[in-house]
Amino acid sequence: MNNLELVKLSLIFRVVIIVVIYFIIFYAIKAINKDIKIADKVADKRNRRLGLRVINIGPYERLRNNQVIMITGLITIGRKEGNTIVLKDPYISSHHARIYKDEAEYILEDLGSTNGTYLNGNPIVNRAFLDVGDIIKLGDFTVKVVE
């Protein structure tokens, strides 16, 4: 090999190395951008505040239709005094269900009620995650999850 061939070979290696470095930088920036978008979505979800819009209060209730109850902490629902929402419906257990926020998720939990807790028409087993537009039904009491 002469000097001219070594110079050409050296130039080719330099170009290949530069191209590889640019690909590495490009994919690193792409991955960082994706992580930032995911972090923004999680932050938006953590800062989101949900409430319960009363659709049907059932008989004998203290609430009003279309009233919104914001989920600011633990909400307990049951027939017994001391619950956040007291429902004098015979199909509601003393301590029927609870709703709370855990990290970025809102959770509906059935507390072993006799007649069940329904989310979007389906009975929940133990607990379920809530989202905007979900319909919760306990006895005659029905609420819609709103922002």
Automatic annotation (TrEMBL):
The keyword Oxidoreductase does not apply. The keyword Transmembrane helix applies. Keywords: Membrane, Transmembrane, Transmembrane helix. InterPro entries: Cell_Proc_Reg/RNA_Proc (IPR050923), FHA_dom (IPR000253), SMAD_FHA_dom_sf (IPR008984). CDD domains: FHA. Residues 75-124 form the FHA domain. This is FHA domain-containing protein. It comes from Clostridium bornimense.
